[in-house]
Write a structure and sequence with these properties.
about 60 residues; mainly alpha
């Protein structure tokens, strides 16, 4: 697993945790903050996923085919 894929998975998990916390109505003041965190983590996960897709691994020494 590349670092970018690992980061993307991490941010996806954090976004899910923040969404779950935002739906918890026990703490009214924290709902808005957790919603914002969920959006931020989701955006980071998408950004990392795009970066991982763009990264093409090329060998240090080109191999003859």
């Amino acid at each position: 697993m590349t670092p970018d894929v690992h980061d993307s998975e991490y941010f996806r998990r954090r976004a899910a945790e923040a969404r779950a916390a935002a739906f918890c109505k026990d703490r009214d003041e924290a709902v808005e903050v957790n919603g914002d965190l969920a959006l931020a983590y989701a955006a980071l996960a998408r950004r990392r996923a795009v970066t991982a897709e763009r990264t093409v691994e090329t060998p240090a020494i080109p191999l003859a085919e």
